[in-house]
Amino acid sequence: MQTSTPPDVRLRLVRPRDGRRIAGVAAGLGNAFGIDPNLIRIAFVVLAFASGVGVIVYAAAWAITPAQAPGSSSLPTTRRRARPQFVEAAALAVIVFGALLLIRPLRLGFADQLVWPIALAGFGAALLWGRFRNASAPSTQPPPSVADGSTGSAWSAAVASLVGDTRRPSLGTITRIGAGCVLVITGAGVFLATRPTSTATRNAASAVVVFAIGIGLVFGPWLSRLAQDLAEERRARVRSQERAALAAHVHDSVLHTLALVRRSASDPRQVVSLARRQERELRTWLAGGPRPSSDSLAIALDEVAAVVETDYGVPIEIVRVGDCPMDLALEALVSAGREAMVNAARHSGAPSIAVYMEVDRERVTLFVRDRGVGFEPETGETRRHGLADSIVGRMRKHGGTAEVRSRPGSGTEIEVSVPRIST
Amino acid sequence: MSAARRRVFVVDDHHLFLSGVRFEIGDDVELVGDASDVASAVELIGEREPDVVLVDVHMPHGGGAAIIEQVLRKHPNVRFLALSVSDAPGDVVGVIRAGARGYVTKTISGPELLEAIGRIADGDAVFSPRLAGIVLDAFSSVPIHDVNPELDQLTAREREVLRLIARGYAYKEIATELSISPKTVETHVSAVLRKLQLSNRHELTVWAIDRRLV
Question: What's the complex ipTM?
């Protein structure tokens, strides 16, 4: 149904091949604006009752919008908002409400008594069925699953919590379900209340209510048992999946390392190094997997120490007091620390290196200490002297300080510190 | 190393480790026995009254903390040194608050273990750098309510000593650095141990509660 494309359209509006209910108008609009197509469909239905405006707009959009060309992908065209946002949905609601108010004076089509209950019920349904995402989640992340409770329709989140995927629905979900139900019931109530009252209707309404309560009482316990069984089954499945993951991990890493240990049994340093590496890797895995080093100074320091330890075969023990997120000055601190560790590993001959990191309100301080050969601070070997100069220079650039203390035969301690950048 | 042969009891449910410890220190101390579960450990320790007990933190039915609590009720003079592969703050603090006087990880070498046993037998506390870091962390925040300055805060000197331990200094080196005697260093460390055991600081009680629930 190719017609001329509308002039000056920034967003490419196409009616996609998949996801159509009637002609793909709502799906196309949803993709272009990043709103759940279901919400747009509800808006069209509500507006259709308002003097048929919804039908007119739908037909116009159908005519204007080209169908998706065969072969092209049906991904949302705007990458920025790939998932429905609550703000956009609220904007849509406001537009529909405004349109209803505008159309009202025309007094065409259906009367108030029909339009407003349908609008109320429509808003309620939108709250219950619409898929939203927490405003705080960035849109560059992959779409979160329903199980973590932060997206999906209110119903799917409630069901997920009932069967035990999540602990309990978030306050936001509970509010949405409550508000949605209230709106729908209010809409139905207003509709019934404005009908010419007839006893038959009243009786029918109360009969429905009584029936619903009766069914609830009869089937309630059975339904709850069903839900519990479902939850238990899900938990058992999750447990067996985790066992499988653990088995795979153990097979890949630990058994492998143990085989290497047997092969290197005559080289104690290699054995110790293998053991430490495997231990570190297991601890990280137990803690839930590696995290990006930009998250915290502790992680960045751990990573640096792990590399130095692996490269030079000297164990490095880190003691921490406090932690903080990374910034430029701290990156310089960490690389000065690395230089100090490498220097100690290479030249001190010490069996191990002690690192102490302290974060307090104003400063971050790092100590790298070894009980190795030490050196004369004034006349020291050029290599270690160069170390002091480069570390001091680097720290000064970021407003920090560095100090190298050493005595021949009693080891070396390097202290570097930077002030914290107050946010 | 200590002059007299210390009477040492070892508790661990890991048999390989038990025999390793026996091998490492068996010549230098008098090993009066061993156990691998809570009930028999409590019973045997009560019978034999060793000077120092090496106790593993993680064991079924309450672990090292349970053994320490039960033994100290009837025999308050027994001294415990906790051992573990873990150095998670919760484990460490839990077992110290139960009454242990020191905490070392199982990667410790034979000579260092002997030195730690000697120190505990003499009535001092054994603080590894990691334990010192944990204490500094726990006592770093300003407590909001009910401050008992004797128990809930570290003095400046105690903080200095802990900091040096965390940086990897031995007691003798600390004594030189701060121009005090090694005995004074030990006094400060024992005072910190007492605070760690008795303080009602939120950070410490939270860790203890977590352990009970687990």
Answer: 0.82
